[in-house]
Amino acid sequence: QYSLIKDVVSSLKRHRMHEQQFTHHPLLVLSNFGFQQIQVKLMASMFQNMFPSINVHRVNVNSIKRCLLVSYDAETQLLDFRHYSVKVVPVGVSKGLKKLLQEKFPNMSRLEDISELL
Q1: Which end of the chain, N or C, is less packed with Cβ atoms under 10 Å?
Q2: Largest CA distance in the chain
Q3: What is the pairing mode between strands 66-73 and 27-31?
Q4: CA 110 to chain centre
């Protein structure tokens, strides 16, 4: 079973797709691949070798734009693929300052001073 990208995009309320999303490889997450069977180990090795390894001490978090989740169900012997878009957003700041940090310029016509926004 699969879904076409146009069907996925049309079902989303706010879809985020941009060219920079595909300039870097995704962060690969393997779930339920800890079984000792040789075919499961082979599948895990294949997925790990499809993408370059990430050095967690030197990786720039802002460069990670996608996450690929591959989950193995041992009972049905099926693989589930999920492809996520990752966005880094500031946390713990006011709504107005968050918009400025994300380079979204808010409507300041109702404000008398910039301090009201912050």
Answers
A1: N
A2: 68
A3: parallel
A4: 36
